Amino acid sequence: MVKHQPLQVYEKQVFLSLVTGIYGCRWKRYQRSQDESSKWECAWFIILSSSFFLLLFWAYFWLVAQNDFNDFNWLVYNHSGEWRDETIPILTSTTVGFSYITFLLILALFHISLGQQLNLYWVHKVGVLATLLTTVSGFVSVNDIWGDEWEIILVSLQFTAPFLHIGGLVTVTAMSWLVAGYVVRKERSNFQVMVLTIYILVLLTLCLTPLTFTCPCIMDRHVLKPPPVIIGRRGAPMLAPENTVMSFTRALQHGANSLEADVTISVDGVPFLIRDHTLRRTTDVSKVFPSREHEEASSFNWTEIHSLNAGHWFLESDPYWTVKALSAKDRSRIGNLTICSLVEMLRLAARANSSVLLNIRKPSPDHPRFRSWFMDTLWTLQKAGISQKKVTWAPDTDRGRVRGLLQTTNEKLSVKEIRHRGITSVTLHYKKISYKDIQAYLANNVSVTVYPVNEPWLYSILWCSGVPSVSSDAPQVLRKVPYPVWLMSHSAYNFIWISSDLVSVAVVMGIFFFQKWRISGMQNYNPEQIMLSAVVRRPSRDVNIMKEKLIFSELNNGLGSTEELSLFPENGLVRYSHGGLSC
């Protein structure tokens, strides 16, 4: 007699196969397990999570540090002697590493939510370690070359903190599903209590974090002051070579109200404009004077300086990735540019009725013009025909000799010290001045200029803070910011803050109650009912029916002569009879 064994029904689990296959190379059903993950795999999950948060911080840092990318490349040039855009490989590797680690972390969280055992594939373990070590080495390198840039994180939080708070709430709320699923199990352990306690503390801390925020753009619209005056720092160096006539012209054309330049005195007493101490980076001095390329720029006379090309380096290195957008005419003009003298820039400013900010670099004591540099500069101002009221001089040394000119200091001084020195303005790096400092200076009629301001978010913060003027490498960008990127009243933000906190807490509580109900229901479910449900469930198109072999055996090898096993596929029931009894 032919004996039929019951059919086994397996559902397709494509998503689960993808999750376990990509994460742990476990593509087959028999390779998966719902047992507890080993301590070793839990350690790898902690390493993966740590790598994610480290990369998240790293990516955020480079996102806000775009404001200072040119300064970073300049510092790298001073260390290596070669000009190249080092931010491109950093951004590329950060994007790839962050995407990879995030993807693995999402897969790991799916494992936890689906009750699957964690088992990270060895190839991914190598990738995680390589990404982690690369990121750590990046932190060390940046701290060595650009250590003071970490302060931009605190500055940027004045702009991003409200949004990071909302994002953090969403993330912690979503994590409650996993936390609740773990801590509401029937088994109780000290580790579960610790996990729950840590989660509650994190949630409460996040809810109260806005109490520590200092966001200038949380203010009433009617007290917003006019936009800061934009100063073209070395002109518009993203559109033309820095400290050249064309660069200053472009700055004025793109809305700059003032110009800023770095002034050096030549060996024959001619003030000219250059940022670096040497001529290597921005001229072809290595071709014209190969034996003198490492000499100080101030050791050349004006005839030698004026013979150098100051535009080819811009076209070749493309420091801001803007050369391709230039017209053929502009490229031709840039290719023939020379170093700009101070008198040329002052005459341009006088014609445009613009003010100027001069950063004077005093010659060294062994320089031929050490004693006469001041008169050389003052004579140039008179020669250019610009009003002395339009000229601001920095640093604030030689105050007794500088008469009729405005003076500013690059030091962060107290209001008392500023009054004692007899100056009325300060020019400070944005990382050296806080919102409270700005308010204190303005309250005592001290004008404030902040530099460098190249991104709209930083410009918005300073605008809301009431800063009168900013110095920028990108006046063409700030010109397109007609209003702060975001502005919100205190009452509106308080409503959003409290509402989001309440919604988050309510959702978390709901998830915990639901997980408690779901797991308790599973624990109280009768296993026989589960088996019966599996038997009577009707097959569907998404169900694979795997038939086992038909077993042919003799009566003495199978059921007894009075036993019979029958299968009725039409109603999904299995009938077994023995001696007239059936079930």
TrEMBL record:
Q: Which InterPro entries match?
A: GP_PDE_dom, PLC-like_Pdiesterase_TIM-brl
Instruction: Write the record's keywords in alphabetical order, separated by commas.
Output: Glycoprotein, Hydrolase, Membrane, Transmembrane, Transmembrane helix
**Where does the UniProt annotation locate this protein?**
Membrane
Q: Where is it predominantly found?
A: membrane
This protein's superkingdom?
Answer: Eukaryota
Write down the membrane topology: Multi-pass membrane protein
Question: Membrane-spanning residues where?
Answer: 42-63, 88-110, 122-142, 162-184, 191-213, 495-514
Which residue range or ranges hold the GP-PDE domain? 228-482
On whether tRNA processing is a keyword of this UniProt record, the answer is: no
Pfam families per the UniProt record, alphabetical: GDPD
Q: Which family does it belong to?
A: Belongs to the glycerophosphoryl diester phosphodiesterase family.
Protein name (Swiss-Prot/TrEMBL) = GP-PDE domain-containing protein
Taxonomic classification: Eukaryota, Metazoa, Chordata, Craniata, Vertebrata
